[in-house]
Structures are given as structure tokens and as C-alpha cells.
Amino acid sequence: MNPHQLTRRQALYGLGATLGSVAFSSLINSKAEAATSQESPLAPKKPMLHAKAKNVIMLFMEGGPGHMDTFDPKPELTKRHKQVSKLTGGLEKGFKFFVGSPFKFQQAGDNGIWMCDQWKHLADPYVANELCNYRGCQAESLNHPEALYHMNTGSRLGGDPALGAWATYGLGTENQNLPGYVVMTELALPQGGPGNWSNGFLPPYYQGTRLRPEGSPILDLATPSFKTREHQRRALDELAALNSSYQHSLGVEDKRLLARMESYELAFRMQAEVPDVIDLQQETEATHEMYGLDQPDTQSFGRQCLMARRLVEKGVRFVQIFSGGWDSHDYLERGHTSRIKSVDKPIAGLIRDLKQRGLLEDTLVIWTGEFGRTPDNNKRGGVYSLGRGHNNQAMTMMMAGGGVRPGIVGATDELGRSAVETVHPIRDLHVTLLHLLGLDDNKLTYFNGGRFKQLSQFGGEIISDLIA
Predict the structure, then answer these.
(1) How far apart (Å, rounded) are the C-alpha atoms in residues 39 and 27?
(2) Which domains does the chain have, with CATH numbers?
(3) Integer Cα distance of 301 and 344 in angstroms
(4) Which of 6, 33, 63, 140 lies at 20 to 30 Å from 238 by C-alpha?
(5) Longest CA pairwise span in the chain (Å)
């Protein structure tokens, strides 16, 4: 090796001339070799506890849907429409007034799930009977990026591993030819960008793989015409030999190098399997219609929901889909009507499809935003702005399958300002989701920065009312 390429660690090892130092270096090298040859870090692992769910599909409504405009009706708020509000909190200042929901509400399914009249397909009893509406969760931040990071990673600061990263770290994935954690977005990324699906301080194997919304979902997915699979295989083998030789020379394990070597192999395997998974033309016309692929308003989100079903069916552990545009500070009726219409049929189709295929029992579907909305708003330019501010004291989320209990859990006060029953912070929600997957938050840890870290940051409580 070129002496100018030696690291300080290698140089110190080279200075040792005793038998002990030689033995120590040999031991470290043997561990590095074992790490290089061991099975994939994403190989399936046994859950720590009895698991009710094997996979997760998380539908993230970025911007914060209004709970009193979707699944948590507030008749008293409607009575006070445009009356002066003296409520404190939130980001809005100055003159504030109450905003009644522009929508009427209906009850759906055997459990009487409340939902606004814009939900046409989710209200079908076959779907609604599976729904669990949780109203007791409270966030911390009122700012979108921080709140997004908190809901997705357990930390408001960013840089920590995402939910999907923790899930694949604890359980691996059932298909070694596909990523364990897949993310789908619109053309514009959610606020905070890829930090919402980062591996954080976990090894790079566990970061989310984003599928592009237009064109090829993954760049360079097709093998170049001038290369054969055999040619690629030989090139990868040669590259692996060079990397292994370099890894051996380091004398210590380099997780980044090992992860890069594994990513090359995964990419090679994905070129063979991904084209088949993303080929939605294999689905029947009836399935396309069920997800809304035949309608402009629902086509985009419908394709992603259908893709999510195909991915979990193929063994992907965690799938996340982001839908933006829910931040309605004004034009509430127009904004939420459009947003609900774009996701209603695809979500109902996803739950129906999973149920019909026997996949819903062990697939946890979650619909959520980063926080809720205020029951009041402030005037803008002297005009009543019919919208809502950010509210971290009350929100709503919908779940289905994966061991959750259908029905309504928790409650907010009569105006929707704050959660008042089955009240829990986000960390308790995260602990509960891990529990449904058969993972113990207190045992699912990773040593970083001088201490063992976990998703909940410092522990949490299982929300037993959510579990069937």
C-alpha cells in the first residue's frame, strides 16, 4: 500500500512490533472479514414480542389536516362561527374569531366513525368497519419542519432515524431484492426533505428509498444496452474484491464501506425485480378503477397506494406516501374538498384491496398529519380568513388493520382546541406502533454519541386502547 494513503490508525498499528500487537491486529482483521461475509443487515429477524403487524403503510397528509373538518365534528364550534375568540396559543395574533367547519358530518360503519361528507368511499361500511379514529395524540412543535421531523423520527431537531429505519433495523425485510423501506412523494418534497426518511445515526442500510413520482421510479433501473447481466456481475465481483481488500487493510470495521458494498448488490438485484413490481399494467381494470387510476383527481395518489400494496405483498417492511396541500390557513372549504377528493378513493381502495387479499390483518395502515388545526383564525387585511392555524394540542389520525381496535379512541374538547381523553404524546404513539410490530422500544436501541438511543428518545407508554 502507498504509505501516503495510511491513516493515523493504520500507522499506529504498524508501529507495534510485539506479538501482542500482532495478535490484536489479527483479531480486528478477522472481525472485519466476518462483518464483510455475514448475511445482509436487512435479513429477516424474529420480533422481540408477539407481533400483530408485519408491515406498515403510512399515509402522511403534510400540512396538518383540520381534525374538526375531517373526522372530529364540533357542533358547538359551528354555533360560534365568526364569534370573537379569546383562546390563547397557536401562531396567530391579534383579533381572532371562531371558524365553524364548512362540512356536514356522517357516521359510517358498525362503530359509528364520524367523517365529513366529503369522504364518499371511506364511508363505505366494508371499509369503515376496519377504521380506528384516534383523537388523543398531542404534538409539540407548531412549525411544519420540526413537527414533520417529530412525527417521522421522534425528534424535532432532524438527523435521527425515521420510523421506517427503526422498523427495518429491528425486523429486517422479507425480500432481499427490494429495499426494506420505500418512500413516495409528490414532485415537491415535504418540508424537511429526505430528513423525514433518513437512517440518521443508524447504518446506511436502513434509510428510505424514494421512488420518483414521474418517469422511472428509480434512476438507472434499466440495464444499459451495451452491458449484459453477466458483465455487470463480473464488474461487481471485481469491485467487491477491491473493497474487501481495502476493508481488510483498515484493521477496523468501516460501516459506510460495508453499506456501500451492500447497496451495489441491492441495486443489481433490484434491476431484476423492481420492473415487475412497478408494472401496474399487470393489475386488472377493476383494480385500477378501485384505486381511482381512471380519474385525473385520484390517479397520482391512487398509483402510489396501489404500488404500496404491491410492495408489501412482495415483502417490503415499511412504505410511506406523502400528500401535500393540507395547510389551510384560508380557503379551507376549497382546499380540504380538493385534498380529500384526491385521497378518498385511493385510501378506501387500498384498505379494501388489502382486506380482500387477506393482507390487512398484518398490515398496519396509518393516516396522519404532523399536527392538528385551531378552532379559530385571525383576520387578514381586515377580512375574515376562513381557515385555521397550527395546533399541537389536538389532532386526529386514522388507522386500520395490523392489530388496531376499530372504533373511536380518545376525544378533544367541544371546540377541538385540546385533547381531553386518552391523551398521549407522539412518543407513546411511536412506542405503540413498534409494539404492534413486535418490537420493544426500550430494547430496540443503538449506541451512538456515548449512549444507547431509541425511537422514543427516553421511553414511552403503550396506548393500550388502540390495540385489539
Answers:
(1) 20
(2) 55-217+281-466 (3.40.720.10)
(3) 10
(4) 6
(5) 85
